Amino acid sequence: MTDPAVLIPFLIFCVVLTGTPGPNNMMALASGVRVGVRRSMPLVAGIAVGVALQLVAVGLGIGALLQSFPALHDAMRWAGAAYLVWLAIKIARSGPIDVEADERPPLGFAGAVAFQWINPKAWAITTGAAATYLPADGYALNLALAAAAMALISIPCVSVWSAGGAVLRRFLVQPAYATAFNIGAAVLLVAATVPILFGAH
After folding, report:
1. 10 Å Cβ neighbour count for 145?
2. Which domain holds residue 154?
């Protein structure tokens, strides 16, 4: 993992896949809208830690275990999809921003860590990383370095989405704008899940 020929493509892989639309980033966006960047940081940190722990687990063999029991893997993916649909409905039905209200983010630190285990995109990222970028020589060290790098990269990539939500926050006190945003965010959350759900086996 210290070889630039492996490290640089891996870092690009992490930036692209943790920074592009998906369930985690849609939740970060919604959290930024509702509670701002600072109060979204436990969610962001939980996503980063959860993905890193999942990469370690995949590297240690849980990925192979799930391949041996595809029904279990499918059940986890569909459980994740069901949760995301529920969250999308909750977002779509939420009202305009009340800047005086003490709202809560969609998930806290522990919830965000746990969510990665049923997040289809997280599985696609970690299984892809483990299969493609981990050299056999010094495997344990490379796995630890890869997990740390993925966590560190995830934090700014996901935080950008929270910051974007916080920028939108000032406009969403108006009911018409809030309704349009909430419905759009809900649709994007589901849309970001569908291709991963049906493409990650």
Report:
1. 16
2. 4-97+108-199
